[in-house]
Amino acid sequence: MLFRYLHLLALVSVAVAAPTKTASLAVAQTSTDSAAIASAAATALTRSPTSNVKGKAFNRLLTIYLENTAYENAIVDANCNALIEKGVLQTNLYGAGAPSLPNYVAPGSGDIFGVNSDSFILINKNVSTVVDLLDDKGVSWSTYNEGLPYTGFEGFGYSNPIEGNYARKHNLLAHFDSVRFDQNKISRLKNLTFFYHDLQNQKLPQWIFVTPNLDHSGHDTDLQTSCSWTRSFVEPLLENTYFNNETLIYITWQANNEFHQARNHVAGILLGSAVPQKDKGTKDDVFYTHYSDISTVEANWDLHHLGRWDVGANVWKSVGERTGDAPRPWNSRIAGAPLEEYYWNQSYGGVFSSTIYQTNTYVAPNLKLERNGRTILPLVRHIWEDNCRAPTFEFPPGRYCLPDYYQDIIEVPDAVHPPKGFEVDIPLNPPPPIMTPITIYS
């Protein structure tokens, strides 16, 4: 039987280089009491930074993640089909794990860290994210979360009687201490109403992530509801000359909701004025994962990388044609199996894995990787350049070094083909979520 517990300050550094001194469990602003919500909302700091950093293929990216729909179902809905006809349909895209949460951790940071539940996880401050890459180049960003009671709310969920229900697991950046403990960053994790405010005032950032509420995403409803909402949200933006100026819109589904019964095959749709006319109404059969979200951003703005699975992930083809990033086909020799034998429908092991037969540890980024001239983010190098210098919870003081499995490849692992030492039970159904903050699953 699994023993669940919370690690206090002494354990925050579990298997992480240069551990931070701030306790990860210092979670504020979680009360859902109406009076507490009103008080916090009245004083919450909200920022709307802007910038104009020229990209090679687009100057603005808006991403929408929807919920729990297999590829073959998404492409036949009438409303989603109306959007597909205006852009590019990605036919060979796969999620990162199961259930929902790993598919948000992956495009945020370049790995899933063993997440196989929708628990209240706190990812150590030493793990950098996509917004660290953007900040390094001065590219403005914000996330907009429908139903979020106020900017900076850190609770597990919120029943919003006006805007629909919110779930922390779908808030892309809320899981990372590197965001939570930075006031400048957490002030940009906003409610969706701020999107319309920023749009009206022409103060939208260049990188945008939109999370619909649990109804509009399809999580608590169905595909028809989510596609209808998405079409109603996107089509006016396509007609807005301020917004749709060298802009790329990306719509995808975080997972297919089949867990171990089927491959985690989902659809992706590219829209907007940044899509070349020749590509509109076409299909893109290149192999992608949710890590391609990061690699495409890195390629477009010539950013550094995180040293994780973002490095090798294929850049979206219509973008890569303008950045010099040619797509690579699946290599069965590297993968050890053909593409058809990879599922990505449950998570391999790691610090947040519920499997008891593997080590709950972080993995050090690969600082040596280089992709098309893009190198490791200096911040990441500074944090991780000597990952052997600190003792860990599992190992006594000494020169134990964290594992390092990242390569410049597209063939990312799944639970059936895990990195060595990160094996899990097959099949492994997602356990019930732990609804209080944890820094390790054990």
TrEMBL record:
<feature type="signal peptide">
    <location>
        <begin position="1"/>
        <end position="17"/>
    </location>
</feature>
<keyword id="KW-0732">Signal</keyword>
<dbReference type="GO" id="GO:0016788">
    <property type="term" value="F:hydrolase activity, acting on ester bonds"/>
</dbReference>
<dbReference type="InterPro" id="IPR007312">
    <property type="entry name" value="Phosphoesterase"/>
</dbReference>
<keyword id="KW-0378">Hydrolase</keyword>
<dbReference type="GO" id="GO:0009395">
    <property type="term" value="P:phospholipid catabolic process"/>
</dbReference>
<protein>
    <recommendedName>
        <fullName>Phosphoesterase-domain-containing protein</fullName>
    </recommendedName>
</protein>
<dbReference type="InterPro" id="IPR017850">
    <property type="entry name" value="Alkaline_phosphatase_core_sf"/>
</dbReference>
<dbReference type="Pfam" id="PF04185">
    <property type="entry name" value="Phosphoesterase"/>
</dbReference>
